[in-house]
């Protein structure tokens, strides 16, 4: 048979496969792998990952060190096994596509690809120092809480020892070359690390206020602080970030809780006065004033990843994909329950809410966290 005809037939078959089956089929042979590069694949739709809870009363042999994945389009569940027993006492702080920023019980950060199980270990927190000549010593307390001792490293004088929680975190990963950028907030400081750096660096904004949320796009970090304003930093100017803009919300705006960024690069601010009800604001770049928007257009918002995605191939138009509030993620004793109604898709057009309670109800073991993410296998 004509080799080109074989290749065309394989492409036709692969383009009809589900997301998971497509990536499995790439491993069949060199012909199938070559055919996969010519396929017009559908957009990857949002999936859910559920992280296992640490249940102390269960015997060791009953502890499951796996995560549950759920594809709502195909209505299929998958299990990622052998993630290590530390996954039970490890917190997920942020995600980017299939990559997750994890913090284990020994106060070690690492990046985890949930589909390939690849890990990238980040530097020890002992390597952290600020632009003000201070060093920090961290001792883990709970899921995402530390006792932080601050001192001048030159004369070893202790300045302060206080308990802080991680207020927010953001992750960016280049799928092809594994470049990455990580930022997380504690107290009124921001710690960041990027591929190639020796350790962590710490800086503060000129407002000297605590971070509520943040989003990162094209070397720029947008930080929502406690007074409701947004401060911007540019990381493309050298070793230290440059603060270049600050935006103050209009008096009529509600308290912002989250930031997000659209496909076009526009920054959004989100508030929620009641459960399953969200107000989305955009800023006029000319007047720097915020105004509420009624529709996301042909996009959907993944609140966990702080991004919008095209509303096609099963992704619901003008919807918010939501999971649990950050307050639950910081609570060691909190487990997801059937009646929480936290995992959902909220339609902004008609206020309809699609729930996914069955995912926790059908499991014999409890989960401590759930997040929406975009599945990828190392490249677009």
How does this model look, in words?
- There is one protein chain.
- This protein has 380 residues and is mainly β.
- The protein has a domain at 1-41.
- The protein is built from five helices and 28 strands.
- The strands form six sheets. Strands 8-14-13-12-11-10-9 form a seven-stranded mixed sheet, with no helix packed on it.
- A hairpin with a 2-residue loop joins strand 15 and strand 16.
- The radius of gyration is 22 Å and the shape is globular.
- The two termini are 32 Å apart.
- The model has no long low-confidence stretch (mean pLDDT 80).
Enumerate the strands of the largest sheet in spatial order, edge to edge or round the barrel.
8-14-13-12-11-10-9
Beta strand count: 28
User: Could you say which structural class the secondary elements and strand pairing correspond to?
Assistant: mainly beta
Per DSSP, what share of the residues sits in E-state strands of 2 or more residues? Answer: 35-45%
Distance between the termini: 32 Å
Computed CA radius of gyration, to the nearest angstrom: 22 Å
Poorly predicted residue ranges = none
Main pleated-sheet profile: 7 strands, mixed
Mean pLDDT: 80
Helical amount: under 10%
Helical stretch count?
Answer: 5
| Coarse shape | globular
């Amino acid at each position: 048979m004509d080799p080109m005809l074989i290749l065309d037939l394989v492409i036709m078959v692969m383009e009809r496969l589900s997301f998971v089956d497509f990536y499995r089929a790439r491993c069949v042979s060199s012909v199938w792998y070559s055919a996969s590069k010519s396929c017009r694949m559908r957009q990857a739709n949002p999936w859910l990952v559920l992280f296992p809870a640490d249940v102390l009363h269960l015997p060791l042999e009953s502890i499951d060190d796996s995560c549950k994945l759920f594809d709502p389009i195909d209505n299929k569940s998958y299990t990622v096994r052998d993630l290590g027993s530390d996954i039970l006492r490890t917190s997920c702080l942020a995600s980017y596509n299939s990559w997750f920023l994890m913090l284990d019980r020994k106060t070690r950060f690492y990046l985890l690809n949930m589909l390939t199980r690849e890990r990238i270990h980040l530097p020890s927190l002992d390597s952290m120092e600020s632009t003000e000549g201070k060093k920090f010593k961290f001792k883990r307390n709970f899921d995402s809480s530390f006792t932080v001792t601050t001192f001048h490293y030159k004369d070893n004088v202790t300045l302060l020892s206080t308990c802080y929680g991680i207020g927010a975190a953001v992750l960016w990963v280049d799928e092809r070359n594994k470049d990455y950028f990580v930022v997380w907030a504690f107290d009124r400081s921001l710690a960041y690390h990027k591929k190639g750096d020796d350790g962590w660096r710490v800086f503060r904004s000129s407002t000297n206020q605590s971070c509520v949320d943040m989003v990162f796009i094209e070397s720029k970090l947008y930080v929502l602080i406690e007074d409701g304003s947004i401060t911007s930093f540019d990381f493309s100017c050298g070793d230290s970030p440059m603060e270049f803009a600050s935006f103050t919300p209009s008096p009529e705006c509600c308290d912002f809780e989250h930031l997000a960024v659209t496909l076009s690069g526009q920054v959004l601010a989100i508030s929620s006065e009641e459960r399953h009800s969200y107000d989305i604001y955009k800023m006029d770049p000319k007047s720097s004033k915020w105004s509420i928007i009624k529709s996301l257009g042909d996009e959907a918002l993944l609140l966990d990843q702080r991004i919008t995605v095209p509303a096609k191939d099963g992704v619901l138009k003008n919807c918010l994909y939501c999971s649990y509030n950050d307050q639950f993620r910081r609570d060691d004793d909190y487990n997801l329950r059937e009646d929480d109604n936290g995992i959902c898709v909220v339609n902004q057009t008609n206020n309809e809410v699609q729930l996914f309670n069955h995912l926790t109800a059908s499991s014999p073991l409890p989960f401590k966290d759930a997040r929406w993410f975009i599945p990828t296998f190392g490249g677009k």
